[in-house]
Amino acid sequence: MANVNKRKRHWALRLAAGLIAVSVIAGLTGCNLAELNQKALVSMIGLDYTKNGQVRVTLGLISTRKMESKDDRAVMIYTSEGETIFDAIRKLVMEVGNQPLWPYVRIVVLGPSISKKDVTPVLDFFSRNNEVQPNPYIVLSQDPAEDIVNLKTDMSNLPALIIEQQIDNQTLLGFAPKVPSYQFGEMMFTEEKVGYAPIIKKVKRNNEYIPKVQGMAVLKKGIWKGDLNEKETRGVLWVKKQVGGGILVSEFESASFSNVKIALEIIEKNKATIEPSLVNGELSVRIRIDTALSIGEVMGSVRLTDENTTELNRLAEQLIKNEIESSLKKTQKTWKTDVYGINEAVHRKYPAYWKNNRKNWDNIFYDLPIDIEVTTEITKMGLFR
Amino acid sequence: MFRWLTKNFKYLSLLMHNTTDGQEQGGSFTNGTNIGSPNLPKLVSADLNGNLEALQACFGMNEGVLYRTFLAGKAVKRPALLVAVSGMVEKTMINESVLSPIMNAELPTGKADIMRHLRVSVLAVMDIKEEKDFMQVVQQVLGGNAALFMEGESKVLLIQLADWNMRGVEQSTTETVIRGPKDSFNEDLATNLMLLRRRIHHPKLRFESLTLGSISRTKVVISYLDGIVDDAIVEEVRKRVKKIRMPAVLESGYIEQYIEDAPFSLFPTVSNSEKPDIVASRLLEGRVAIFVDGTPFVLVVPDQLINHFHVSEDYYSRPYLTNLVRLLRVTSFLLTIMLPGLFVSIIYHHPILIPFSLLVKLAKLREDVPFQLYIEITTMILVFEIIKESGIRMPRPIGQAVSLVGALILGQAAVDAGLVSIPVVVIVAFSGVSSFLVTSLNDTISLLRILFVLAGTAFGLYGVLVLGMFIVTHLASLRSFGMPYATPLFPINWHNAKDAVLRFPLRLLWDQRNRMSQGAKEVQYNRGGGKQDGQR
Lengths: 385, 536
Hints:
The structure holds 2 protein chains of 2 kinds.
Chain A: H1 2-29, E1 39-49, E2 55-62, E3 75-82, H2 85-91, H3 93-96, E4 99-101, E5 107-110, H4 112-115, H5 120-128, E6 137-141, H6 145-149, H7 159-168, H8 181-188, E7 195-205, E8 208-220, E9 223-228, H9 230-239, E10 247-251, E11 261-266, E12 271-279, E13 282-299, H10 306-334, H11 342-349, H12 351-357, H13 361-367, E14 370-380
Parallel strand pairs in A: 1-4, 1-5, 5-6, 6-7, 13-14
Antiparallel strand pairs in A: 1-2, 2-3, 7-8, 8-9, 10-11, 11-13, 12-13
Chain B: H1 2-19, H2 48-59, E1 65-72, E2 78-85, H3 91-103, H4 114-122, E3 128-131, H5 134-142, E4 145-150, E5 156-160, H6 189-197, E6 205-212, E7 218-225, H7 231-243, H8 252-259, E8 271-273, H9 276-284, E9 288-292, E10 298-301, H10 312-316, H11 319-349, H12 356-366, H13 373-393, H14 396-416, H15 422-434, H16 442-477, E11 479-480, E12 483-484, H17 506-518
Antiparallel strand pairs in B: 1-2, 2-4, 3-5, 4-5, 6-7, 7-9, 8-10, 9-10, 11-12
């Protein structure tokens, strides 16, 4: 009978232990919970330095109340200053009342006061914070970031969404790069700190300013060196395999296409290879670009035959080559910035060479003979025959 | 975890059995129970008046017990007594086939066996037995027999004339079909057995009868197809059913709770059905059915989880839509138990997973709601259960009106008043509606849903995952009468997978069934390490 009692107690003990465990676990959780309506959704961040060296953070907080109003912006702008970004953001609780919810940040705008000084200090927050996602787009601006966050847009009452679309849909155009924060971090946390980011501008429309994403800012040592225009930007993107679309248009100076403008559409993501070759200690690079085109529009009258289509291909190849060369003129000869990633290709193919010459890469890049080879294929005529 | 629960449960039940051990099942009323008077004879006596007095003492004040004393025989007259219970026997048959022939019979004189004579050449009734045990006679009379006593004979003729009013064979209310037989079992055991026999005209269809319940004396029939069924299963069913000790069996659920493998599991390891065609098909698969007198619900063992996702119509209609619907059943089962939990865990712990535009909408809708989300959603789930339960219990005439008020007006008013947010109503309503695709697991679903909400609130997706893994592990550990409960999913059994989540065309399935029927040993189920003696 004693044995029976023991078993009985055993059973009761285990049950009690189980119940206690469950209730403790359930009790532990309450404090972590935060409901959606107790958090402020951040859509866009603007970063500037103030005159006395503090960080000014401008947040575009989504106002769920105003989401349905068509005229007004559904964003409330809050600005806060602090010694660091994190400090400034925490101080915002005093004004907003709620904790910001970071995962939905779409756009990070870096103002000129930061990009002309050094962008790397402010990037740490975006890779360290566990709530910030690695995918908001980085944009640089010549105007203070605060002004950019303050802009209104016509198509949506959330400007961040429009700017995101403007960057996303560059795949149809190729006039601005698409740089998520993780990629920007990868560029900036290298030794050379060479990288690029799209440029955001405010343009006037109906007495109001709207944002416009256009061109590429090239950075070296974390500092904004200079801009590339649309064609030059695409020149870089060709090599980076990031041209997914766009229009090549020209009035071709050729016998068979006189007085005719032809717009060629880039119809698939281009291929590109960078082939370094080391002969007798002399490094040279060959860049091969491969892309497919279709004829989108012919302004003028020309009869397309097999012969002049081949000729058109050659002309288009020259166009692409010109774009790349014009970008090289600035990046290679003016700023000595290897935004193309040629250094990685060299590193991969000639590790020993790279080891000896990595410190001197800027100068080697400056003198590097780069041979560009473009192959295009016009696969669609755009008309039924 | 369940193992030690089961162990302790067994131990408890052992204790209970020890205290009630004096209660012998096969014995008479007088033992163990306090029913009946102590001084009843063991055997039928030759004295007619003695028998009458003993019977009257036994039945006591008992409206409806008919005693008819008369003189049997035309020339040679002998006093006789006919006892029956009014309403359980057919009176016209007694008059025409029993009383009248006996009164007009030429009774043999001398030492001839008069009972044998009556049985053989006088009574025009199919089912007649001789009986000497007095208590047996009393029981048979209560079971719808007429008992014929004769002066000077220490035997009784039990004449089977049972006939009582019963609900007819009607459409099933719990398992409705569009295509397929509409009849369902009713409360009469004989009718139920008849319905099954009419499905399977084969001599190997066996019905083993036994009586359960020391007071109710309920007839229970174990049915199987000899040659298809695995003998070990039948033996296990017999063993478990015979072990049952209880005063009354009013429904097959009583038996189910005594013979199931895992009494502490949320999942039922014994299935039930009230449709003869379903029971027939289960028998053809090599399962065992347990009929209980007085209920239309027939138990079928062994039960597999996947059976709950199958409907008889799956086999009657063509396989294309059937397979889509079966997939929907599985998905909606998963959704109905997990959706509220997932919703809560994502909102609380992983708002990143919500698409941006949806998040903005959700945040907006949650803005004015006063309560915490998990309180809101648990309350709504409970409200749904209340509406469901009241819908079942309400008297039918007011039922529809009130459930309409409950469901529509209550929900709408709660949203309008800002007590509940619309997404919560949508989610609870959806998961509530989709629970009815797998009706037979409804109890399980309702409880699991709440568990998932708690797990999701406390630990987020991690909690939902761990609880899900716990359930899957538990399912894999369950067995029903020696068969793995989750087969053919785990352990994987490709042969049976032909009719698991998807149903293959019948030609392929019948191929499988024919093979089963070729020999008892080739039963389709892999016993998967189940102990041969059927130890739980």
